Amino acid sequence: MKGKTLKAIYGSPDRPLKIGNLEIPAYVLEDSRRVLVQGGMLKSLNISSGGSRSKGGDRLAKFISGNRLKPFVDKDLLDRTTKPIKFKIKGIVAYGYEAITLPEICDAILEARNNGVLQKQQLHIAEQCEILVRSLSKVGIIALVDEATGYEEIRDKYALQKILDKYISKELAVWAKKFPDEFYKELFRLKKWQYSPISVKRPIYVGKLTNDIVYNRLAPGVLEELKKKNPIIKEKRRKSKHHQWLTEDVGHSRLAEHLSNVVVLMKASANWGIFERLLNRAKPKCGESLMLPMEYEDEKE
Q: Is residue 133 within 8 Å of 103, Cβ to Cβ?
C-alpha cells in the first residue's frame, strides 16, 4: 500500500483513548497499524502544537531532533516522528503516528532528563512522560495476561480503559501540588520579593527556606531522610519534590496541617522577623527547645 493514503477502519472521534483528563483520538488503519492523531499526541506530552503539519516540519519532529534529545533517539523513532502517517477518516485527511511511538518518545525524554540535559522549561514534559509510561506499562501487562489466559474474550469492552483511568489518577496524585499558592505569595511578601502567580520559577533559596520552615519541623529526622532519598543531582536541583516521598496516610496529612498553620502565621506577620519568631515559638525545629514567650520591639508596631 506504499504511496496510498490509508483509511481508518476502526475508531471514532467519540471514542478517543483517554488518559486521565487527556483525550487522544486513536484509529486502526487498513494495514492494521494503530495510530494516534498528531494533535492529541502533542497534547498528551504537554508540547505546544504550533501551526505546521508539513512533512519534516511539525512541532514534534523539531522537538525530538533537537540537540538535547537527539542522542537518546534512534533512527527509526526519528524517521517516524519526522514522517507522520497521512490517513483518511471518512474522507477527511488526518496526520498521526504509530501508537508505539508515544512510549518510545517518553523513554527518550526520561533518559535525557536522567542525564541532566533537558532545559528547565522542558522538565514538565518529562514529568508528563513519567506519568504516561508508568500507567501504560501497568495496563499493558494486564492486557497481556488477559490475552494469554483468554480472559480478553469475555472482559468488559472498556475494562482496560477503566484500569488506565484508575492508575493514571494515582500517578497524577504523585505530582499533585501540595504547597498552596498562598504559601509562596506570603513568603515572597515577607521577604519583599516580587511575586507572580503565573510563574513557577522560584529562587533556589526558596528551597532552603522551605526545608527550614516546613520539613525541618514535621517530625524528628524527616528532613535528613528526605535528603538521602531525594539528593541533589545537578545544578543544585533535586530529581523530585520532597513531598513526593512522604507517606500518603500520615506524611501528606501532616504536611497539609503544618502548611495551613504556617500560612496563618505568615498572614499575621508584618515582616520576616516577626514570622520567624512566631514560627519558632509555635512550631520549633525538631530537637530544639520551645522559645519562651517574650516581647520584641518590632511586634509593638
A: yes
Spatial CA neighbour of 190 closest among 89, 92, 298, 108: 298
| Contact call for residues 66 and 83 (beta carbons, < 8 A) | no
- Exposure of 214 by Cβ count < 10 A (0-12 exposed, 13-18 middle, 19+ buried)? buried
> Per-residue DSSP letters for 33-44?
-EEEEHHHHHHH
Cell of 263: 500560612
Name the one residue in this structure whose C-alpha cell is 501540595: 178
Locate 259 and state its grid cell.
502548611
Residue 95 phi, psi (nearest 5): -125, 145
pTM confidence score: 0.52
In angstroms, the CA 108 to CA 100 distance is 13
Distance CA 287, CA 29 (A): 65
DSSP conformational letter for 204? H
Question: Which alpha helices (H) appear in the chain, and where do they start and end?
Answer: 38-44, 59-64, 75-82, 101-114, 123-149, 159-175, 181-191, 204-213, 222-229, 251-267, 272-282
Q: What are the grid coordinates assigned to 273, written together?
A: 522577623
- Give the C-alpha separation, 215 to 217, whole Å: 5
Residues 150-173: pLDDT tens digits? 777 777 777 777 766 665 555 555
15 contacts: CB under 8 Å, gap ≥ 6? none
Per-residue confidence at 57, pLDDT binned at 50, 70, 90? very low
DSSP strand pairing (92-98 vs 85-89): antiparallel
Q: Exposure pattern of 115-149 as b/e (b: 16+ CB <10 Å)?
A: eeebeeebeebbbbbbbbbebbebbeebbeebeee
Residues 96-124: tens digit of each pLDDT: 999 889 999 999 999 999 888 988 888 88
Name the residue type at position 70. K
> What CA–CA distance (Å, rounded) separates 232 from 242?
11
